[in-house]
Design a protein that fits this description.
Length: about 575
């Protein structure tokens, strides 16, 4: 009978865990959560109470304190009595009890200090290995504030070389944090937050913070044997149970502010990242590659950017939606018309870094692509992914023997653009020649083109673009010309057959020609070099302006240069034949 009752209880318990056929239909999709089911059945929600360990800490501190005070007083009284009554035994007292007494008291005092700090202080540890970007942001913020106030806290510095984010040049820098430990005290003034609104001038919260920098040991990492340091930053705040939560919230707000300020792009430059690997059998990682200056329509020389009307729609769409969704754009056109320059320009307009990606790399697979664009692999909230020379990738996808294709597959790329592992925000720009948008290619790869939100084509320069580029590129070298003189020379330049005829002109072609002619004018002695911020700037002499413009508008020089220029041809047969 007992076994029968046990079997009945087990059967009822099994029915609750494994519903019968009548109830399995409702389990095809779990549409209702456990919380809503509990509420519907009238079952109260469980309560969670965290038991505080402060009472135990106080008790242990009291015990340790008593263990310190009572033996200390007793031993002090005994030693003093023996010291006074028996002067001949003083040396033996020191030798026999001094070491053990000091060691015991030192251990007890260290235990008491740890207990007191655990009860009275909030301790936050930031490791360089666990949170690299946050660690760099906090150390950089503290170093900048200390240097601006002239309080270096120590004369101990570490010299290193790093790239300047504005100029891209390698500079020598004295690092605020060195190989020695360092302690400093700071006072935070954090604006009080009310929801999502911060009152900058009315309410300010103050917090005293003790900072301890622990350099750690040097560690040899990777097969390239690079030397890294296990650095740790310890933040300690004296608090109590009543204001512990508010103090933690202030710490979080300060650390978030330091992080946002650290990753905020510098104006007029774009950071470019690429995949690098320390060994041939290691997974590649995103590493900072270089700084690219942002071009704009108001600049001169090589800093001038020719804005094309065909790209305004993409810029507007990116500003509207790239902060909340992933947007994919395709830019097509012949070589040299400015597709890569547009990628850098729009990244500067959006204030996000550029991540260069080559889908045809044999070291890249579908799984690695998903891993490289996961949240843990990227240090920024929003990025721009540049996929250049897409026609080469398409040619590999369209081959009849798919097994021989190395690199990312079409399905893996589609999963990255729109799938469960795709990025939640940002921009992906795919660039290539005009053959990638042929109808036969779209029919073979409909899933890829269905994920592209907008397409634009950059063509050859028209006479208006050529005249505008001619003026903006040269006005930095000839600043003394009037507007009437520029209009006159623009018309003269456009009358040259090489620029107004049937020859296709790209931005790179025109830029290379103008740079070549400026170099010729410099060799002829038509100008001088002015040193400004360690840069050599060429200025045309006022008495040679006429000769310089005649050199620029020389039809024979233009014909010779363009004939020697590498021919620009759209080789579409290879890709279209595969399609």
């Amino acid at each position: 009978m007992r076994w029968f009752c046990l079997w009945g209880s087990f059967a009822s318990f099994r029915e609750r865990l494994l519903p019968g056929p009548s109830s399995r239909v409702a389990d095809v999709e779990m549409t209702s959560s456990s919380e809503s089911t509990a509420v519907r059945r009238g079952i109260p929600a469980p309560e969670v109470n965290v038991t505080s360990g402060r009472a135990w800490d106080f008790l242990m501190s009291t015990v340790v304190l008593c263990a310190l005070i009572i033996p200390t007083l007793v031993m002090t009284a005994v030693v003093l009595q023996e010291w006074i009554t028996r002067p001949e035994q003083r040396g033996w007292l020191v030798l026999g009890f001094g070491f053990y007494i000091i060691t015991a008291l030192r251990s007890l005092w260290s235990i008491l200090i740890r207990l007191c700090r655990r009860m009275l202080y909030i301790r936050v540890e930031v490791s360089r290995y666990a949170a690299t970007t946050l660690f760099e942001a906090l150390t950089d913020s503290l170093a900048n504030e200390a240097e601006m106030q002239g309080l270096t806290c120590s004369w101990d510095q570490e010299a290193l070389q790093e790239h300047d984010k504005l100029t891209g040049k390698i500079k020598v820098k004295l690092r605020f944090w060195s190989s020695q430990p360092r302690n400093m005290t700071i006072r935070l003034r954090v604006p009080k937050a009310h929801g999502d609104i911060e009152l900058q001038d009315t309410e300010v919260e103050r917090l005293d913070l003790e900072v301890q920098f622990i350099p750690g040991d040097d560690v040899v990492c990777g097969r390239d044997s690079r030397l890294e340091r296990r650095e740790v930053l310890v933040l300690s705040v004296r608090s109590n149970p009543e204001r512990a939560l508010s103090d933690k919230e202030m710490l979080v707000r300060w650390m978030e502010h330091a992080y946002v300020h650290y990753v905020k792009p510098i104006e007029d430059v774009v950071n470019v990242y690429s995949l690098q690997e320390s060994s041939s059998d290691w997974v590649p990682e995103w590493k900072f590659e270089r700084v690219k200056p942002c071009k704009n329509a108001s600049a001169t020389g090589q800093g001038f950017y020719l804005e094309r009307h065909a790209l305004y729609n993409i810029l507007a769409d990116a500003k509207l939606w790239s902060q909340t969704a992933l947007r994919v754009y395709m830019i097509t056109g012949p070589p040299g018309v400015g597709k890569s320059e547009f990628t850098i320009w729009i990244a500067g307009q959006l204030g996000i870094p550029v991540y260069r990606l080559c889908l045809s790399s044999p070291r890249l697979s579908d799984d690695r692509l998903a891993q490289l664009f996961s949240q843990s692999a990227i240090s920024f909230n929003s990025i721009l992914v540049q996929v250049d020379e897409f026609q080469e990738t398409l040619q590999g996808w369209l081959k009849s023997d798919e097994k021989r294709h190395s690199g990312v597959s079409a399905g893996g790329f589609c999963e990255m653009l729109q799938g469960s592992t795709s990025m939640s925000r940002g921009v992906v720009i795919i660039t290539g020649t005009s053959e990638i948008v042929a109808d036969c290619v779209k029919r073979r790869l409909p899933a890829v083109f269905r994920r592209i939100h907008s397409t634009a084509e950059l063509g050859w320069m028209n006479p208006e673009d050529i005249g505008q580029y001619f003026r903006r590129f040269l006005c930095g070298f000839i600043p003394s010309c009037t507007a009437e003189e520029w209009e006159s020379w623009q018309r003269t330049f456009l009358e040259v057959e090489s620029w107004s005829g049937s020859r296709h002109v790209s931005i790179d072609m025109l830029q290379q020609y103008l740079m070549h002619q400026i170099t010729e004018c410099s060799c002829l002695g038509y100008g001088r070099f002015v040193v400004n911020d360690s840069k050599f700037i060429f200025r045309v002499n006022d008495e040679h302006i006429q000769q310089v413009f005649l050199k620029m508008c020389n039809a024979q020089d233009a014909k010779i240069f363009l004939d020697d220029y590498s021919p620009v041809a759209l080789v579409q047969k290879s890709l279209l034949s595969e399609a």
